[in-house]
Design brief:
- With 359 residues, the protein is α+β, with helices and mostly antiparallel strands.
- It has four domains: 94 residues, conserved putative lor/sdh protein from methanococcus maripaludis s2 fold (Beta Barrel), CATH 2.40.420; 87 residues, Efflux pump adaptor protein, beta barrel domain (Elongation Factor Tu (Ef-tu), domain 3, Beta Barrel); 49 residues, RNA polymerase II/Efflux pump adaptor protein, barrel-sandwich hybrid domain (OB fold (Dihydrolipoamide Acetyltransferase, E2P), Beta Barrel), CATH 2.40.50.100; 75 residues, Helix Hairpins, CATH 1.10.287.
- The strands form six sheets. It has a six-stranded antiparallel beta barrel. Strands 1-25-21-20-19 form a five-stranded mixed β-sheet, with no helix packed on it. The protein has a four-stranded antiparallel β-sheet with strand order 3-18-23-22, with no helix packed on it.
- A hairpin with a 2-residue loop joins strand 19 and strand 20.
- Helix 2 packs antiparallel against helix 3.
- The two termini are 60 Å apart.
- 19% of the residues are buried.
Length: 359
């Protein structure tokens, strides 16, 4: 009975050991690791910002007076010609005011003629000593006052006449209507844009917002690469804002060079800037920020060394870091060109661990 118990105990121990090995294999698979290959860098880099295309000659059209819209002869996307009447306000009130101003001019002209006749008469009487100096001075003052009233009446009539033009919107150039903000029988307010139009020329621009960390590297006149409507187009930086204007970024305008006729205002675009850092006599090695860890002993990276098989062994390597640039930290000591460095899941890695590369 004792021999049987010993045999059973040995079998049980072997079973537990085998089970433990099986569980260990299941718990410790070969983990795929995201990595980068360390190269040399002179501090150069690229950055992409999103923007929207617009016409370089976009014009907002509005009335110069208030009134009821009675004519709106255009629609979105319609081509128009310079001088074409696009919209008109109701001019009945303007006509009444103009007629009243003309009547005022006629009345003022009559008073002017009457005062001039009276001045001439008093002047002759004064010269023949038949009128006093006071009468003559009074006649001159009346004539001056009538002249001033007449001049003011004419100015008022001219102002009322210009109201007819203020109630009409004409196309200032050949172009395309890109937005209609009102409709017939709506009351328009002076200065509020009713229509927006763009010229027909190849003057498309892209406006992007650039953060303050990059704006000092953006220079007017430098070329950039623009991706718009699945097409790569060359662009030129035409404007760089000096201040943010209350926003979080600085406005930068890029003029497209020879854009395709298929491109239109309002299309989303990606603008790729190339930033060149200061060049030095010795090449600098950079490591991505995601590849750097830190513990009580300082900064480190996980370098992946190839085994005999298709796996790699993790080695924890101490590094001496320099300044932070666009593409990562400058490595002063600890890494060499061609080293493979893990850039994800650093907390799950440990020295001596076997992994495989994640393509």
């Amino acid at each position: 009975m004792m021999k049987l118990n010993k045999a059973a105990l040995i079998i049980a121990l072997f079973s537990l050991a085998a089970c433990g090995e099986t569980e260990k294999v299941k718990k410790d698979p070969i983990k795929p690791v995201k990595y980068v290959s360390i190269g040399n860098d002179l501090g150069s880099g690229t950055k992409t910002f999103n923007g929207i295309s617009k016409s370089g000659s976009e014009t907002k059209l509005s009335f110069r007076s208030n009134g009821l819209i009675v004519v709106l002869d255009v629609k979105n996307g319609e081509k128009v010609r310079k001088g074409q009447v696009l919209a008109r306000l109701d001019q009945k009130d303007i006509s009444l005011s103009y007629d009243k101003s003309k009547a005022s001019v006629r009345g003022a002209k009559s008073q002017l003629d009457l005062s001039k006749s009276n001045l001439d008469r008093i002047k002759e009487l004064y010269q023949s000593n038949s009128a006093s100096l006071a009468d003559y001075e009074q006649a001159k003052n009346n004539y001056s006052s009538a002249q001033a009233n007449y001049d003011n009446a004419v100015k008022s009539m001219n102002i009322q006449s210009s109201q007819f033009e203020y109630a009409i919107i004409k196309a200032p150039m050949d172009g395309i209507i890109t937005q209609v903000n009102a409709d017939v029988n709506e009351v328009a307010q002076a200065g509020n844009p009713i229509l927006i139009m763009n010229s027909e020329g190849d003057d498309l621009e892209i406006t992007v917002g650039v953060p303050e960390s990059y704006i000092s590297k953006v220079q007017e006149g430098k070329p950039v690469e623009v991706n718009i409507n699945n097409t790569s187009v060359e662009g030129l930086i035409s404007e760089v804002a000096f201040s943010t204007g209350g926003s979080l970024t600085y406005s930068v305008v890029i003029k497209l060079i020879d854009p395709s006729p298929d491109l239109r205002p309002g299309m989303p675009a990606e603008v790729r800037f190339s930033f060149d850092g200061p060049k030095t006599s010795s090449e600098q090695i950079l490591v991505p920020v995601k590849g750097v860890g830190n513990d009580a002993d300082g900064d480190f990276v996980f370098v992946l060394k190839k085994n005999k098989k298709e796996t790699y062994q993790v080695q924890k390597v101490r590094v001496e870091l320099g300044e932070l640039k666009t593409r990562g930290f400058v490595v002063n000591n600890g890494l060499n060109k061609g080293d493979l460095v893990a850039v994800a899941g650093l907390r799950t890695l440990y020295d001596g661990m076997n992994v495989k590369l994640l393509n």
